[in-house]
Specification:
The protein is mainly alpha-helical. 83% of the residues lie in helices and 0% in strands. It has helices spanning 10-25, 31-38, 42-70, 72-82, 84-91, 96-124, 127-159, 161-182, 195-206, 209-237, 245-251, 257-272, 274-291, 297-325, 330-359, 361-382. The longest helix has 33 residues, at 127-159. The two termini are 38 Å apart.
């Protein structure tokens, strides 16, 4: 068997990215339903998303160390297999605290796929086609982000919110089967089980300014995205729009733009670099977010679409910056980035909820515009030209 024949296909990587990211944002379109059922405010119900994000942030560095020690493929398989358990617990949850606990457990397991698979791509895919493989994976995560929200809203409108989590359990099983049959065993992987090597890699990463800047950018761009979409569903579920869960889920169709934007980002990053891509992303997001201050629903959707496209482009720029900043302990570096990235989402789930309760949508927009603008400043200062 040739080396080329043993490489996983880009479509498989996209499918795995889709299946794992179905779990991340699925409850976002359900927040108005959950707020009514559990008599919770915007900040309280936002924890359903924030609990997962917090767990993902906390687990990502640890999963990076685990994947460096045990292997990327094995970590991916175990993560998909175990993801069925919290999905079932969420489906059976009779209260908001129990639902939050199940979502926290989901968040602990999701990085097992996310961190390990990106490291697998970095080591097992030849450099000539690695960018395309990474782009396919990121495109899959974007599609999963949309489908999770859309399908959860659609299923909940017909069968109730519990059914959405049964669907996530089924998707975890499918992900396990696809990874087991489609991901070849590693060839380039060498286990790193020496605690001193882990500590050395951590010290090196913490003294790499470009990586630290990338972590800060990741925190800020996902703060923007989650802060926007968590509160957007609550805004559109209220008068004068009064959208149901299926309709608010449809709003997330703007995520499909990421399927177009992400592949386009590859050539842009190659020719102009991450800093140019990030500034372009910030401009798109800021203009789009300001447009959402208008009242007509089509303009709000257009503004959210522009903002989301900016975040997708910024994420591609940040991932490229991570790969450029490190040459060793890649899983640990990826874990540190995702710690910051999803830490931003966890903070946004609560802070944006309080901003919405205090000032409505006009209280949220300055918060997320400021976050995205600050991401641009940090990237420009922290990412030196090659």
């Amino acid at each position: 068997m040739t080396a080329e024949a043993r490489e996983p296909s880009g479509w498989l990587l996209a499918a795995l990215g889709t299946l794992v990211f179905l779990n991340v944002y699925a409850p976002q379109s359900l927040l108005p339903v959950l707020a009514r059922e559990f008599h919770a405010g915007a900040a309280q119900v936002g924890v359903v998303v924030g609990a997962t994000m917090l767990a993902m942030a906390l687990a990502s560095p640890l999963v990076g160390v685990l994947a460096d020690a045990l292997g990327r493929r094995r970590t991916v398989l175990w993560a998909f297999a175990l993801l069925t358990i919290p999905a079932v617990l969420a489906a059976l949850s009779p209260s908001l605290p129990m639902l939050n606990a199940a979502r926290f457990i989901q968040g602990l397991l999701i990085p097992g796929v996310m961190v390990a698979l990106t490291s697998y791509i970095g080591e097992e895919i030849p450099a000539a086609v690695r960018a395309r493989a990474l782009t396919m994976y990121v495109t899959g995560t974007v599609l999963g982000g949309f489908l999770g929200r859309f399908l959860a809203g659609l299923i909940a409108a017909r069968f109730g919110w519990h059914a959405a989590f049964w669907g996530l359990a089924a998707c975890a099983v499918i992900g396990f089967l696809l990874a087991r049959t489609g991901l070849p065993p590693e060839r380039a992987f060498r286990p790193s089980r020496d605690p001193r090597a882990v500590l050395s890699g951590l010290v090196t990463h913490l003294h790499t300014p470009a990586l630290l800047a990338t972590c800060a950018v990741g925190f800020l761009i996902l703060f923007t995205l989650v802060g926007t979409f968590n509160t957007l569903t609550l805004r559109l579920a209220a008068a004068p729009y009064s959208l149901n869960s299926a309709q608010t889920g449809s709003i997330f169709a703007v995520y499909l733009l990421g399927v177009v934007i992400t592949p386009v980002a590859g050539p842009l990053l190659a020719t102009r670099g991450p800093r140019f891509a990030l500034l372009t992303a910030v401009g798109s997001s800021v203009v789009g977010l300001l447009l959402t201050l208008t009242s007509p629903l089509p303009l709000i959707v257009a503004g959210v679409a522009a903002s989301a496209c900016g975040v997708f482009l910024a994420q591609s720029a940040a991932l490229a910056a991570v790969q450029r900043a490190v040459t060793q302990a890649r899983s640990l570096a990826s874990g540190l980035y995702h710690l910051s990235y999803y830490g931003g989402a966890a903070v946004a789930s609560v802070v944006a909820g309080h901003a919405f309760e205090a000032g409505g949508w006009k209280g949220v927009v300055p918060l997320v515009v400021g976050s995205m603008a600050l991401a641009g400043v940090v990237g420009v200062v922290g990412w030196k030209r090659p």
